[in-house]
Amino acid sequence: MAPLRTMIARANSRVYSFANRHPAVGPLVFVSSILYFFIQITVAWVWSPPYSVVTNAISDLGNSACGPYRGAYVCSSRHWLMNVGFVGLGLIMAVGSWLIFQEFTEHSPRQRLFAKAGFSLMAAAGVGTVLVGVFPENTVHAMHLLGAGLAIGLGNIAILALGVSLPLPEGLRKSMIVMSVISLSALVLFTANRDMGIGPGSMERIAAYPETFWLIRFGLYMTKSHRTRAVPAT
What we know:
It is built from eight helices and two strands. By secondary structure, the chain is mainly alpha-helical. It has a two-stranded antiparallel sheet. It is globular. The protein starts with a helix and ends with a helix.
């Protein structure tokens, strides 16, 4: 156990040093999650019959077989790209969280604790997202569901915890709290097969997409914060 703790402490020390030398990297990693949406468009573009964001699940894009699935015909010729996108997004969530957390280590003990919990949950959500890509919905379904639950559930709990605890602009804090509550509610409805008349694909996107939008927005906020601190006082 002691050698493991030593290895973790050394890794954290190196990450802290790297984040201090290159503070723009963590936020840039978060912002790069915008590629996830472009990958979805690229994969959905070649579907026949046309892919529907209302009725099709996001995971249908990564389904590696052609044929009936959940009462609909699914055939994603670029499924490999979508699954690479899932794995890439998961790595973005995990690596970006580890780097950005270093910027909150000098805050009060309470804020540091909540930051550690929030960014750790976001990193765990990233691991879940990797599982979604490694285990497409038509393969090991239990692992796929576990990954999706971790990705959306833990990710939004992380955003809620960070929004409640961190010293952020009021508008950003409130949007994080409201967004995470709506997303978690949508996740419960989606899991219960209640789409409220808007379609299962729409309900899933209400649960999942705000998390990725937050990654982009928070990355941009941190980038702007760095630039503001870099401007010398006059």
